[in-house]
C-alpha cells in the first residue's frame, strides 16, 4: 500500500510556524493508519521528486515484533518510568502557570533561556547555566558524544547497574528495527549499514545493528500526553529513523505528525514506523486511558570516529587539560 502527500507547505514556513510548539488537529488533514491493514508494508511519499521516484516520508512495517521478543520488549518498555528535562526541543513551551503549580515563579525561581527552556535557581542564589525543560517520559539508551567533554560514552541510564538486565532485552529493538528497515526501505538500510561499518566502532553498534542510540518514550493522558514539533539533528542526513510502537488499552491520537505535509500517522501494536526525522515532526495529544509505548532507534552521526565521516574523540574545555596530563604521564611511564 502506498500514499503520496498532496501538499508541501515548505520547510522554512513550517519550521517558523510549528517548531517547538504543540501540534494539534490544525497541523494535519490526513491520518494514515496501519490498524486493520493487511498489507505488510505501507509507504508514504513526499510530493516532490520525479513522477516515478518520490522520496519516502515514512514507511510502516506491520507486525515486526512477534512472540517472546514482542512481549519482552513491550513489558520492558512499560517498566521504564524515567523522565528527562533535557529535551527542550521536544518538550513544548514553558507555561508560567504550570510552573507556578510547581511553586516556581519566573524571574525569582527561574529565568527563560528559550521559549522551551529555562535556567533554574541554584541554592547559592545563582542561576544554573545548564538549562532545563518540561519533564517528559523519554530516556536515552545507548551511546553519545558528550557536549562538554567531546568524548563518547554510555548514557546515564545505561550506567545504572539496575538497568543492565533491561538493556540486554532492549538490544533486540536495534536488531528487529534493522530487519524492518531492510524490509521496508532496503536502499536506505544499505546506506546506513555501510555508514556504520565504515565509520562507527563496533562497540557503539547496539546489538550489532547500525544503530547507536535508543529513545524510549511513553505517552498517556496522566503523564506525557504529547511531544512538540522538532527536528532530530543527530540523525544521518541520508538515513531514516526507525521506531517500534506498542499499544496498551484503548486510546486515540498520539499520531506521529508531519505538519509540512499535513500527514499524521497511526501505527498498530508491534509495528515499526520508519520516518524521515530530518523533517519537522512531533506527536499529537493522546486521549483515553490507554498507553502508547515507542522506542526510537537511530544512528547518531556524532558517534562516528573512523572513516571520512569520523571525528576523533578530542576532549574539550577542562577535560582537555586532564586528558593531556594523563596522556603525558602514560607516555613518560612507557
Q: What is the gist of this entry?
A:
It contains 7 helices and 18 strands.
Write structural notes for this entry.
Helix content is 25%, strand content 26%. With 334 residues, the chain is of the alpha+beta class. The strands form four sheets. The protein has a nine-stranded mixed β-sheet with strand order 1-3-4-15-11-18-9-7-8. Strand 7 and strand 8 form a beta hairpin. Helix 2 packs across helix 5 (164-184) and helix 5 (164-184) crosses helix 6. Residues 324-334 have low confidence and may be disordered.
Can you tell me the overall shape? globular
Provide the β-strand percentage band: 25-35%
By secondary-structure content and strand pairing, the structural class works out as alpha+beta
Give the biggest sheet. 9 strands, mixed
Question: Helix and strand succession?
Answer: EHEEEHHEEEEHHHEEEEEEEEEEH
Helix content: 10-25%
Mean pLDDT: 91
Low-confidence stretches: 324-334
Gyration radius (Cα, Å) is 21 Å
Sheet with most strands: strand arrangement: 1-3-4-15-11-18-9-7-8
What secondary-structure arrangement, pairings included, does this model have?
Layout: E1 2-4, H1 11-18, E2 30-33, E3 41-45, E4 56-61, H2 67-79, H3 96-101, E5 110-114, E6 117-120, E7 138-145, E8 152-154, H4 156-159, H5 164-184, H6 186-199, E9 213-220, E10 227-230, E11 241-248, E12 251-253, E13 256-258, E14 263-266, E15 272-275, E16 281-283, E17 286-288, E18 291-298, H7 318-333
Parallel strand pairs: 1-3, 2-14
Antiparallel strand pairs: 3-4, 4-15, 5-6, 7-8, 7-9, 9-18, 10-16, 11-15, 11-18, 12-17, 13-14, 13-16
Helix pairs in contact: 2-5, 5-6
